[in-house]
Amino acid sequence: MLKPYDGPARVVVGFDGSEDASRALQHGIAEAMEREAELVLVHAVDDTVLNSAWGVVFDPEEIKQGAASMLAKGVDDAVAAGMARNRVRTEIVLGNPAAALTRMSGQASLIVVGRRSNPGGERQYVGSTSVGVVGAAHCPVIVVSDNDIVREQRTGLIGVAVDTSARGAVALEWALSECQDHGGTVVVISVCRAPQGRWFSGGQPTQEQKDAAVEVTRARMTEMISEITEDFPDVEVTLEVPYGSPLDLLTARTEDLDMLVLEVHASFPTYSVGGTIRGLLSHGRCPIGVIRPKDSHGS
To answer: b or e along 158-175 (b: 16 or more beta carbons within 10 Å of the residue's beta carbon)?
Structure first.
């Protein structure tokens, strides 16, 4: 289980003035108000860009002044949304943005960042800052995008990806706790993965084989999640067991969810988050919540 932060409730938002960061700010404000938490707006000045390859040296003080003006506008937005000004503060830090936010995550209840998906023809790519934070943060991270579907009202559904090896159990417990505190329904999604690779020599599985695999997965998942959900009797939980590609199916499911929660098992030193999570960060249409188990931190 992820070691909980036991200090004052604190929501940290990475803010750089981009459209995705503006969406992260809106989401962070809502989270802070719902949790009655302090809101911290952070802008990291990447020291690697202060000295450009063309020999141009940027003035750090001038950059900080611009960042302070940008963050002040963010504070005004939070106050206009209903937050008390004394519960909103800003920080400007020098260094790699992902590293800076990761350091701050040790004293936070939640990190909210934009995913900086940049159009490239028909494709989009998740930014290195969000990937870095997701892979190393010490608290849950919510990654949002200007590409997310905007709804007038929430669907009330929080999806959680869990498999039969219990990868996702920590994410499920966190989602259950969120719904217990703030309302909502948890949808556990366990994808019965279609066989891939040359090891599968029997050709395409028949519909009967697919149905049997789904039923076995459903039975195992029902037993496993019942042990976790018994501590949250007031939270409605449903189970979905689709068959196919996890990335494709989970991406499609984000069209109907308020948030999809995933568990990441990133390992030192690269903190790689894996293709499925990276793909969902790039292509998902709802906020993506990511949480690391305690043992993933090497502690």
So the answer is: bbbbbbbebebbbbbbbb
